[in-house]
C-alpha cells in the first residue's frame, strides 16, 4: 500500500525524470478521444464521467440537449446503447490548453429502442486541466 501511495505521489508531481516528453498533446488527445468512443460502446459510464467536464451539455441530432449526468444515466439504463462507432475523420487543432477535434463517425446504436446507423460529423472541445485533456463545452468567445 505504501509503495502505491509513493508511486501515485511521484506521478502526481508531473516531473519528467527521463528528460523527454512522455507524449505529445496531440497523442494524448487521440488517446482520450479513442478512449471516449470505446467507453461509449462498452457502456463504461465511470470512464466517460472521468473524461467529461461536469458542466458539459450534449446536443443530439434531434436538437435535444442533455446534461452530462442525464446522458450517463441514459447509457447506464440502456436507453442509449452504442453498438459500434467507426471513426472516419479526425483532425486536431490545439491552442494552448484548449483543443478542438473535428470528427466524423459512423455510429450504430439503439436509442430509446430505435435501432439505426448514423453518420455524424461535429466538433468536440477539450481543455487541459492538471495535465489531463477533458471534454468540455464550446468556449465562449
Which term fits the overall shape? Answer: globular
| Cα radius of gyration in angstroms | 17 Å
Tell me the quaternary state. Answer: single chain
Distance, first to last CA: 46 Å
Q: Strand-and-helix sequence, N→C? A: HHHEEHEEEE
Instruction: Classify the beta-strand content into a percent band.
Output: 35-45%
Indicate the low-confidence ranges by residue numbers: 16-22
Short synopsis of the structure:
This protein is 33% helix and 40% strand.
What does this structure look like?
The protein is α+β, with helices and mostly antiparallel strands. The protein contains four helices and six strands, in the order H-H-H-E-E-H-E-E-E-E. The protein has helices spanning 2-13, 25-41, 45-51, 68-77; strands at residues 57-59, 65-67, 80-95, 98-111, 114-129, 132-136. It is globular, with a radius of gyration of 17 Å. Mean pLDDT is 89; it is low at 16-22.
Keywords:
two-stranded antiparallel ribbon, 4-stranded antiparallel beta sheet, 33% helix, 40% strand, 141 residues, 4 helices, 6 strands, alpha+beta
Task: Walk me through the topology.
Blueprint lengths: L1 H12 L11 H17 L3 H7 L5 E3 L5 E3 H10 L2 E16 L2 E14 L2 E16 L2 E5 L5
Antiparallel strand pairs: 1-2, 3-4, 4-5, 5-6
Helix pairs in contact: 2-3
